[in-house]
Amino acid sequence: MLMMVQPLRDAIHTAKAAAGEGAKVIYLSPQGRKLDQAGVSELATNQKLILVCGSLRRDR
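Structure (tokenized):
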């Protein structure tokens, strides 16, 4: 998936400003590690998370 840089940058900047210092940004990707219960438990140890996820649209 292709995302436009400026809107994504603006959204992350706004989310980080709202969350405060120490926010961790994670991009969820189909090519990445599978997000299972262990991964969720690991992420849950963070107080401030910003999850970035895109969607893939396929024409049928």
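The first strand starts at residue 24 and ends at 28. The mean pLDDT is 88.
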